[in-house]
Write a structure and sequence with these properties.
InterPro entries: DUF4232. With about 375 residues, the protein is α+β, with helices and mostly antiparallel strands. It has eight helices and twelve strands. β9 and β10 form a beta hairpin.
């Protein structure tokens, strides 16, 4: 039995080498991918498609079943003598057993949904595993046939103990592994389908209603700064982020043009002076700074009076207008957050937005102007 277990171990090693090599070569790409197609593989049907835990569980069960079935059959066929033909036949039947139980699992799983004909179409693992063993099963058979009858003195105690396990016990181990194998494979398939449904639901939630590019967690870029560099010293009576707030309602639209009215409100108990242009920036759907050209001046949606000092009394307001031309955002990064400050060097406020501003777009912003009180 010890020789059978070692021969089964060689069969398992060959199984994994031939199964993993095409996968790794294909993943490497280029000419190596073509080379991978030339390696005969017993794992031709999505062995690596399931989530990692189930993939490993299935492969462990395959290894146990191959070792146990090979050891039991090789010992029985050889009648106490390690013959090459008995080892090769044992390798073929062990591989056949793996494919057969996987095909039976697929058949009975799909029977209720696809019927007999559809379930038969889901099978096909058995020919792959069997012909693989026909082609390469001579390797473990040769290794098994050349092993000495008595275990070497340096053989590890674990191997010697395993060799003393009765044939009946290894037959039971093989049966349990073969029964559990299709169950684990189906559980892995179910986990894969569940993961796909979750990914589809997540993608649907993240899908942009305007067709912009979906958020990419692996994207690189510069985060939107919380404050732009100041253009000079801040006067003591200046309107700042500490004594004002900004209101930014939804954008307005005209044919081919967009505009957004900003209101600066003095929330303190003292007058403050604002002189210049708002600080404007945008973030994309990945939370990175959107590269747009922010220019001071007029747009179709608002005239720029130019910078002038305006004194805001407590509770009074000034306004400015952001204007830009309409853009198609389909497949592009787009403005999904708006960052505003009363002036560069002040802390920015931020809003979640959905604007058709894309990288390279030009945005015009007017200077702050006083809002005249209503007459009468």
């Amino acid at each position: 039995m010890r020789r059978g277990l070692i021969g089964g171990g060689v069969l398992v090693a060959l199984w994994f080498v031939c199964g993993w090599a095409p996968f790794l070569l294909y993943a490497a790409g280029g000419s190596l991918a073509s080379l991978g197609q030339m390696v005969p593989s017993p794992m031709a049907r999505g062995a690596f498609a399931s989530p990692a835990p189930w993939t490993f569980i299935v492969q462990i069960l395959v290894a146990i079943a191959l070792v146990a079935v090979f050891a039991v059959l090789a010992s029985r066929f050889s009648s106490g003598r390690a013959t090459f033909a008995a080892g090769w036949l044992a390798a073929i039947l062990a591989s056949f057993a793996i494919g057969a139980v996987l095909d039976l699992g697929s058949f009975f799983t799909g029977l209720g949904t696809f019927g007999i004909r559809g379930s038969l179409g889901m099978m096909g693992t058995t020919p792959v595993t069997t012909w693989w063993a026909v082609a390469l099963g001579w390797i473990p058979a040769l290794a098994w046939a050349r092993l000495p009858i008595a275990p070497p003195a340096e053989t590890a105690p674990r191997v010697r103990a395993a060799g003393r396990v009765p044939t009946l016990a290894w037959s039971a181990i093989a049966a349990v592994a073969l029964i559990c194998l299709p169950l684990a494979a189906q559980a892995g398939s179910d986990a894969t389908q569940t993961q796909l449904r979750e990914d589809e639901a997540t993608a649907a939630q993240q899908a942009d209603p305007d067709g912009a590019a979906a958020p990419d967690p692996s994207a690189t870029g510069e985060p939107v700064p919380a404050m732009a560099p100041a253009e000079g010293p801040t006067p003591a009576d200046a309107c700042t982020s500490a004594n004002t707030t900004i209101l930014a309602p939804a954008e307005d639209a005209a044919t081919g043009h967009r505009g957004q009215l900003l209101s600066l409100v003095n929330t303190s108990d003292e007058p403050c002076v604002v002189n210049g242009y708002p600080d404007v920036a945008y973030g994309d759907q990945n939370g990175h700074l959107l590269q747009v050209d922010v220019q001071h001046g007029s747009s179709f949606m608002g005239d720029d009076p130019g910078a002038a000092a305006i004194t805001l009394q407590p509770g009074s307001s000034a306004r400015a207008v952001i204007g830009w031309d309409a853009n198609s955002v389909r497949g592009h990064l787009a403005a999904r957050s708006l960052w505003l400050a009363v002036s560069p060097g002040q802390e920015r406020l931020t809003w979640e937005v959905s604007l058709d501003i894309i990288p390279g777009a030009t945005v015009h912003v007017t200077a702050w102007r006083d809002i005249a009180p209503p007459e009468g």
